[in-house]
Write a structure and sequence with these properties.
412 residues; alpha+beta; 57% helix; six-stranded mixed β-barrel
């Protein structure tokens, strides 16, 4: 028999026993689908993590004033620490090697109002060079320019969400909004950013689309502090030309700030690159666990193929004996049963690929989890399913080929 004949006989055998063949495929189907779905979830999470830390800046170190209660702040301030300040930004820029830029920013929660529409927002006082340091872009209009900053103008740039809440689908550029008791002209609109749904280092989960950016010079002059002990600056974002020195530089920055803050632990230092590496390490372990579970599913599917085919060999003993008596070789019998195993695994693999892709897309549409389907996951899952089919189909095929023709014909 040629392989094509073995293949045709295998197809006819599977078609004649459709339900049994389908049950045999189930393990392969769900194993293949689970591999694709799990890898797509892992890849989607990886892309989200990279995007999240890119917004913070992979080459950045973030120094943030800690959120302390009024009592704790009073105790800290009594120890001669006035919190983060513009002076800290200047010293770090001058002393720490490899720094390409330092962007200070101040923050305050405010009530934003336009006509009869109100919304809670966070006003962020920034310097014009912040766009060179972090991954923020405007979608319309201007950002804070040097002219706005130097003249301490009352202008603002709206986040995507706060713009929609105040203006719906109207163009906000050139309109005036009220922030607490101060009027500001809208000069720009930020592009939509992914939500921070979890704490990143000391950065609490927040919606960047609900921020309103104004010149830091205007913030210091026009926006009154939240409390008596509020620091001048809420955050310093420090950019470096080489990411390899970030960990060492963070130690230098901590040493400098400790001297100027009299060793008061009223600030935190966040290194996004280190957090990303730590998260990737944890995700690799998680993905390995998921891949192991998926591999076990495929192996269980292979065992199912072997069991069904062993039963099939027993059921078709007479058929095997007749074929051998008519001149069929052991290799012909073996190739026929291996062809059946390959057909089962290929068909199950194809259905599993379709199911895995559908499941991944369904997760993205139904939940906040964004999945990323990759070609390599499809190739690996499908290839492994075929290998499993061949491996577990070999033993039944070998047993069938070893049967004695005379004994097989007499078998009841």
């Amino acid at each position: 028999m040629q392989f094509s004949e073995s293949f045709n006989v295998a197809v006819l055998g599977l078609v004649d026993h459709k339900f049994r063949s389908f049950l045999t495929m189930l393990g392969i189907i769900f194993g293949t689908a689970s591999v694709i779905a799990m890898v797509s979830i892992g890849e989607g999470a990886k892309k989200q993590a990279i995007a999240k830390y890119q917004d913070l800046g992979i080459n950045n170190i973030i120094v943030r004033d800690k959120d302390l209660s009024d009592t704790e702040l009073e105790q800290v301030r009594m120890k001669f620490s006035q919190g983060l300040s513009l002076k800290d930004a200047q010293i770090i820029h001058q002393v720490v090697p490899g720094v390409t830029g330092v962007s200070p920013q101040a923050e305050k929660k405010v009530d934003a109002k336009y006509e009869d529409r109100n919304s809670k927002a966070t006003v962020i006082g920034v310097t014009p060079d912040i766009l060179k340091i972090i991954n923020y872009r405007t979608s319309k209009g201007l950002f804070i320019t040097d002219d706005y900053y130097d003249r301490q103008l009352k202008v603002c740039v709206l986040g995507a969400n706060i713009s929609h809440q105040l203006f719906s689908y109207d163009d906000p550029i050139g309109k005036n909004i009220k922030l607490d008791d101060q009027w500001f002209e809208v000069v720009g609109l930020m592009e939509s950013k992914a939500l921070f749904t979890e704490t990143v280092g000391e950065l609490a989960a927040r919606d960047l689309n609900n921020d309103i950016y104004i010149p830091l010079s205007t913030f210091i002059r026009r926006i009154p502090p939240t409390g008596k002990f509020t620091s001048e600056i809420k955050q310093l974002t420090i950019n470096f030309e080489n990411s390899a020195t970030l960990v060492q530089s963070s130690s230098v920055i901590r040493s400098i700030l400790n001297r100027h803050h009299f060793n008061n632990d009223d600030f935190s230092i966040i290194v996004p690159l280190e957090l990303l590496k730590q998260e990737e390490k944890e995700r690799r372990i998680y993905n390995l666990l998921l891949a192991s579970i998926a591999a076990i599913s495929l192996i269980v599917g292979g065992i199912g193929i072997m069991n069904i085919m062993l039963a099939s060999v027993l059921e078709r003993t007479n058929e095997i004996g007749i074929r051998r008596a008519l001149g069929g070789r052991r290799s012909d019998i073996m190739s026929q049963f291996i062809a059946e195993a390959v057909m089962i695994s290929i068909t199950g693999g194809i259905i599993g690929v379709i199911l895995g892709i559908s499941f991944s897309l369904g997760i993205s549409m139904a939940t906040a989890v964004k999945t990323t389907i990759t070609l390599y996951s499809i190739v690996i899952a499908f290839g492994f399913s075929v290998i499993v089919g061949i491996a577990f189909g070999y033993l039944p095929a070998k047993n069938a080929a070893k049967l004695n023709p005379i004994d097989s014909i007499r078998h009841d």
